[in-house]
Design brief:
The complex is a heterodimer of chains A (336) and B (241). Chain A has 336 residues and is α/β, with parallel strands linked by helices. Chain A is built from 13 helices and five strands. Helix content of chain A is 67%, strand content 8%. In chain A, helix 6 packs antiparallel against helix 10 (249-265) and helix 8 packs across helix 9 (221-243). Chain B is globular, with a radius of gyration of 18 Å. The two termini of chain B are 34 Å apart. Chain B has a domain at 1-76 and 185-241: Rossmann fold (3-Layer(aba) Sandwich). Chain B has a six-stranded mixed β-sheet, sandwiched between helices. The chains are: A alpha/beta (336), B alpha/beta (241). The A-B interface holds A 1-2, 5, 8-9, 12-13, 16-17, 170-172, 174-182, 333-336 and B 51-55, 69-72, 74-75, 79, 81, 83-90, 94, 98-99, 101-104, 130, 146. The structure holds adenosine-5'-triphosphate and magnesium ion (MG). Chain B: One of its GO terms (molecular function) is ATP binding. Chain B: InterPro entries: AAA+_ATPase (IPR003593), ABC_transporter-like_ATP-bd (IPR003439), ABC_transporter-like_CS (IPR017871), P-loop_NTPase (IPR027417).
């Protein structure tokens, strides 16, 4: 009952405070678009080797930003090993086959799109092979899922944490606790009010990334929504919990490098397999690790529920833990 | 007479700092009880102890005979904090509606009471404006209205008339007197002398200690002085606690 009152009030505040509402939706879209512009570019200059390909064919595919050098097969393979060239073009039964060096998805994407464009003019088929790895994804495709998760997490953390903090600094928390509301009702009200808002936020961000920015997407859109909403709730419960330890908005911002930035390192944007065991343990304590992993599972590998349910349960566990701690932390403001 | 608020040998510490020293007080139902004391004397702390926002380090606080803090008693009083606790994005009416809904009032009750208390504090015309456009006094009045919204039998007001002009202050006191006549118990903290005079009984605080407690008339006559000001100064109000 009181929870519903808090939810209604938060939604009303969102309607009035358009800036916060816009921040939570427009800012992630803006940053995702910028990342997309930087990462999904085709403009990188690429270099490929032509092995046993007729001269006129080599000339026909050369284009701005792509040099094609005629080489011996052995020399080309050595260069591929050293990643000095980005691909090797051969002819097999008259069909061109391009072996991509493949370690940098960004470059692979550039080679593919340039060649495809040249060949489509001649309507010639082509086959693709990979020297290293087998990813057929651009860099943005690869980091996209983690970025979606990260931005949802980041902005909900900030806006949720600061709103809860303001409740304290403007005295309304005390006023609220001088009424017959339970501490848990305050916290659930926040989860509910922001939760409803983050559903809208998650839909917009996920749909924009997948359908407008065209991030690689092999899985179920509803699964993506489920995971982003859970990440938002985790971020909200963490943000409100952390705000109990901040004296003002400025101190809340100081928690970003402490709480948010480290999570980025473990979210899969950077490889962590080779790191020391204790470092990986640290990563396992961070909600973003699980959210990003689940999103990659769904979006890149088209995972079914079974293969990412563990991450979902862990995110729910984090939310439950932070919420419980938050209810306890409120004791500081009313012992009952 | 029945007791609304009962405080028995209350002491309170913030960390190592003792701010309330062995205070005993009883507020009878239907009286206006004033807490008068200089800044930092512990008025707000006492009020927070009464409302269950703080648990006393020592001693027992009872509201309507029940030991605080108790969730059941939270419904029984209206509280106006020293600083305005309002949602600045929301309008005056939306603020009241939110606080009203915390007391489980029906929609119809809420609407009726809302208009009544808005009228009481003279804010009917401005009630549809967001609170961040209000003046300091308007916010104070809205806070007062919020504390009265659920028709409590006990109202606890922490410096309710700061920043309110004399005319409106007079009308608020008229309203408080009218509420008292209807059996409502009122506790108010103040450091304004003419307001202290209007209380039925008065507790004088200094440095977290209760220096005296009586009707304004008897406090004055005991010291053979003619003004509250002199009583205040006598009990150390002039020197910072
Ligand atoms: N949360 C707190 N932590 C530490 N000390 C506190 C806290 N709240 C109040 N105090 C101290 O307790 C004493 C009494 O404060 P209180 O707010 O009760 O005074 P007051 O009589 O309401 O003053 P004013 O008229 O200025 O509002 C002061 O010395 C104050 O510094
Ligand atoms: Mg005070």
């Amino acid at each position: 009952m009181n929870t519903a009152a808090v939810i209604k009030r938060i939604l009303r505040q969102f309607r009035r405070d358009k800036r916060s509402a816009a921040l939570m939706i427009a800012a992630p879209l803006l940053v995702l678009t910028l990342m997309w512009l930087v990462l999904d570019t085709d403009e990188a200059a690429v270099e490929i080797a032509a092995v046993g390909v007729p001269e006129h064919f080599v000339e026909s595919i050369e284009t701005e930003g792509m040099t094609v050098t005629v080489m011996e097969e052995q020399e080309a393979e050595e260069d591929l090993d050293r990643a000095e060239i980005d691909g090797m073009l051969q002819l097999e039964d008259g069909v061109p086959v391009l072996t991509l060096e493949g370690s940098d998805p960004n470059t692979s994407g550039a080679v593919r799109s340039k060649l495809q464009k040249q060949l489509s003019e001649q309507s010639s088929p082509i086959e693709w092979e990979y020297w290293n790895g087998s990813s057929e994804l651009g860099l943005f495709d690869y980091v996209g899922p983690a970025l979606i998760g990260f931005f949802v997490f980041f902005f909900v953390f900030i806006v949720g944490g600061v709103s809860f903090l303001r409740e304290r600094t403007q005295g309304t928390l005390e006023r609220l606790l001088a009424s017959p509301i339970r501490r848990s009702e305050v916290v659930f009200g926040y989860l509910g009010g922001f939760g409803l808002f983050t559903i809208a936020q998650s839909v917009v961000i996920a749909a924009y990334s997948i359908y407008v920015l065209d991030v690689f997407m092999a899985g179920n859109f509803l699964y993506v929504l489920l995971v982003t909403i859970l990440m938002a709730l985790t971020a909200l419960s963490l943000g409100t919990l952390v705000s109990a330890f901040a004296g003002n908005e400025f101190q809340m911002i100081q928690f970003i490098p402490l709480v948010i930035v480290p999570q980025v390192f473990f979210s899969g944007l950077f490889p962590t397999e080779g790191l020391a065991e204790w470092v990986q343990v640290v990563g396992n304590l961070m909600p973003l690790t699980y959210g990003a992993e689940a999103l990659r599972d769904i979006m890149l590998r088209g995972a079914s529920w079974e293969s990412f349910q563990m991450e979902v349960f862990i995110l729910i566990g984090f939310t439950a833990l932070f919420t419980a701690l938050n209810i306890i932390a409120l004791k500081k403001h009313r012992p009952l | 007479m029945e007791t609304a608020v009962e405080m028995n040998s209350i002491s309170h510490w913030f960390g190592k700092l003792q701010v309330i020293h062995d205070v005993d007080l009883n507020v009878e139902k239907g009286e206006i009880y004033g807490l008068l004391g200089p800044s930092g004397s512990g008025k707000t702390t006492l009020v927070k102890l009464m409302t269950g926002l703080l648990r006393p380090s020592e001693g027992v606080v009872k509201l309507n005979g029940e030991k605080m803090p108790a969730l059941k008693q939270m419904k029984q009083f209206g509280f106006m904090a020293q600083s305005d606790a309002l949602y600045s994005e929301l309008t005056g009416r939306e603020n009241l509606d939110f606080f009203a809904s915390l007391y489980g009032m029906s929609r119809k009750d809420r609407r009726l009471r809302m208009e009544h208390v808005l009228d009481m504090v003279n804010l009917t015309v401005d009630a549809s404006r967001p609170v961040h456009t209000y003046s300091g006094g308007m916010k104070r009045r809205l806070s007062l209205a919020a504390s009265l919204i659920h028709e409590p039998d006990l109202i606890i007001l922490d410096e309710p008339t700061v920043g309110i002009d004399p005319v409106l202050r007079q009308s608020i006191w008229n309203e408080l007197n009218r509420l008292r006549d209807n059996g409502v118990t009122i506790i108010v903290t103040t450091h304004v002398m003419d307001e202290a005079e209007k209380c039925g009984r008065l507790a004088l605080l200094r440095g977290g200690r209760m220096m005296a407690e009586d009707t304004p008339f008897r406090l004055k006559s005991k010291l053979e002085v003619s003004s509250m000001e002199e009583v205040f100064l006598h009990y150390g109000g002039g020197i910072r606690a």
